[in-house]
């Protein structure tokens, strides 16, 4: 995997084309550090996650004999996957998945951990633990249910069948479809638009959306702190002034 920093939009690329970008244990284990770099980089305001040709065909099943051969090693492997996916979902900055080709298993898990998914018209999606005798992770199952609802989550997990992109769009698994050649450009464009907005507004919205998904509906001190910060911030002053001056705000 590679990470490009240094601009408002960072890019994390899954790059293992010989395996359709199947995620090795080492790749899962590297994700928390890579996402930590994104979080710590003051220049970065949004992240695009993409694959080289394919998004990702999931975990590298070829490693399972050596790295998941017994219960203890299976638990260590699962913990690495969980930590990697949570590092994406828990990033304080907005994330956009640019999905091309296969987005299956752990690849779909990564895409679902992102805030927004832009996909190719010929992309294929699936979550296939039912083909392997694995029970899908609770946190990632919740992420799937939050996005597509319990009925479609049931069909996806029970059947382990692949979905075409049109179905993925219809059930809300992805936000937009585009020709394959345009997906990364559109995802980057959207991320750049988000990066140009008032970051206090974007971060506050991301925090409140996450709270609602976790069943926390009350306006407590954390939420009220976001409200207070917004009306006392430089972003708010600039936004109002730009509106009155009939110009584009500079956040």
Automatic annotation (TrEMBL):
It comes from the Bacteria. Keywords: Lyase. GO terms for molecular function: enoyl-CoA hydratase activity. It catalyses: a (3S)-3-hydroxyacyl-CoA = a (2E)-enoyl-CoA + H2O; a 4-saturated-(3S)-3-hydroxyacyl-CoA = a (3E)-enoyl-CoA + H2O. One of its GO terms (biological process) is fatty acid beta-oxidation. CDD domains: crotonase-like. Transmembrane segments: none annotated. Belongs to the enoyl-CoA hydratase/isomerase family. This is Enoyl-CoA hydratase.
